[in-house]
Specification:
This protein has 175 residues and is mostly helical. It is built from eight helices and two strands, in the order ααααααββαα. The radius of gyration is 19 Å and the shape is globular.
Amino acid sequence: MKTKDRLLAVDASAKGWREGVPEISVENVTLMRLIRVASLGITAFIDPILRPTGLTESSYHTLIVVLASGDESTTPSTLSEQVGQNHANMTRILGVLASEKLVRVSPDARDARRRRIVVTVAGRTLVRTYAARFAPIVKAAFAGLSAADKRALQRTLRSLIESMDAAERMVGPAA
């Protein structure tokens, strides 16, 4: 299913949501579904380009976050939080990145039980190579938004994320 078809499906099912799940406003359900459609759209244009490397959007995102951590390196737990993956998935992703020599995993100097992750030269090169390939695609993906729209969307998403943090606290730990 193409991203535009997913959008049509969201619109087509709004009445069913309103009638079938009246406890949650159709506006909130629609927003959640639109966010998922947008996320799937990003994956739909990134994964096919990365396929020859054996990486996915999640593993490439992880590699970028490791790169952004610089010489300070980062930890698997921090990466899990920043990339939005559970610990088991992050372990698998880091295993792939390490086996491809895109990151180096080593014990923490102060606590050998912890692992530190740092990007390698090969990882840095891969990020830059594919960033150049993604640039025109990302530009096309956001072409329908003006600079002011992009700033407004960033502000709105930041507000939403802050609200979601409050919702997470309502659920409690390890829910």
